[in-house]
Amino acid sequence: MGPSGFRVAARLEIEHGAYTTAAQGRGWVSSRWPSLIFYAHMLSITYRCSAKAKRGIFDDAAWSAGSLETVRALEHVGARFEVTGLEHVAALEGPCLFIGNHMSVLETYVLPVLILPYRPITYVVKRSLVEYPIFGHVMRSRDPITVGRTNPREDLKSVLEGGVDRLAKGISIVVFPQSTRTAIFDREAFNTIGVKLARRASVPVIPLALKTDAWGNGRLHKDFGRIDPSRTVHFAFGPPLRITGRGGEEHERIIRFITAHLAEWGGTVTG
After folding, report:
1. What domains does the chain contain, in order, with CATH numbers?
2. Eight-state DSSP code of residue 240
3. If both were cysteines, with which of 67, 137, 248, 264 could 50 make a disulfide (CB 3.0 to 4.6 Å apart)?
4. Tell me, what DSSP letter sits at residue 22?
């Protein structure tokens, strides 16, 4: 629970800042066709969330509940989650920035149930996400900061202005500084936009490392890739960083945090 007493009902069973999927058996159908079974659940979750968003009743509690359903749907087909570092999220006073790598659509769906029990959040997202026919209703209801990813100067202005506004309202922000989601972490493509916002707004940064390639990126449609339950889903939240000077040192510390965890988890790093 954050300093304002903010709470949501849907949450995972967190112990000492960590969550690990409990051992469980899988049915024959889920074992044989994990992608088919998962996407059947996922489409149902998304449609129900979208319907609430269109009616203006999709609040943080509903968002967290839909996020929890997504975790359970992945676990149902055999995916295993390992989450650490949530004690840093729980202990931090006031709003912050979460800056991490972006591997798949999984983190967009799952991060709410990890963070919302402690503080309200929104995302910096590509503008096309709020224009999706179904998921777009959900995303727009979260009042995200949108960027076009074609003009870096305009994107920086949008993030700085929109970010300062959200943070002043007590809303924390998730930033993925990569240009696109990818299973390979490229240090050179990890820009400083998040650190610049944290410096402008004078708020701390929580580094976020993740490995979410259990939900693959699709070839025909990026959101609908293969579900591979053999790949453990990892999230690691680091201790908060305060930006000093121009933020270059903190930016490098975030990159080192991500690369160290990806190396531990068997991920790929370039640049």
Report:
1. 19-270 (3.40.1130)
2. P
3. 137
4. P
